């Protein structure tokens, strides 16, 4: 019964938004926006606590929310890890162990509304602002981002143009317009609701759907970049990384098979290490 309810829940929510929009279009658009930005998972699980608690570092204040940071100290260059949607810093555990063997100085933080960090919503511009706070504190040489963390890594560089040496993107989506097409299909939202939602996005974040393109933002990046994406990624299409790679002239694209969206195995870790070591 629970599984059946969860299956139909998006349609029920969509029906409610479609109906509310007839009477209160602005309120319906606001609800659709905050629903889109609200993760359902990503908090720290009991089995993740030991690894994370042993590396807890400073907590910094970001828009009146506490953001948890982590550090695994080393003597080599500073690397900052930026996790994805409905995840937390624990996703980097195996990669961190490899970086420790190379004696890198490793930093990470839980995004707003994820892990041990406070907050209820997340979007790329918000995440990029939090990332900039972290960059200001530690001045990393290399940033590695996964999924929405990879989107944020590019958008952050587009916005702030920091003096980072290298960037690594794992499974990045690219076009907000495609993401919103999927959102519309999942909830079965009417075109009129999507129009109001796009207006609300523009009001809140300063971009219309088609304007928010990671591939376009990557065009101005001058640092060397490594992009890794799985051919059969079911979350973010491989076309996203191909478009980013095409616009980002100083980037290299590695396409895997069978690594999924998580892109979390020895071969991928070794490719990243080869890139940052050279």
Automatic annotation (TrEMBL):
<feature type="domain" description="Serine aminopeptidase S33">
    <location>
        <begin position="76"/>
        <end position="196"/>
    </location>
</feature>
<protein>
    <submittedName>
        <fullName>Pimeloyl-ACP methyl ester carboxylesterase</fullName>
    </submittedName>
</protein>
<dbReference type="Pfam" id="PF12146">
    <property type="entry name" value="Hydrolase_4"/>
</dbReference>
<dbReference type="InterPro" id="IPR029058">
    <property type="entry name" value="AB_hydrolase_fold"/>
</dbReference>
<dbReference type="InterPro" id="IPR022742">
    <property type="entry name" value="Hydrolase_4"/>
</dbReference>
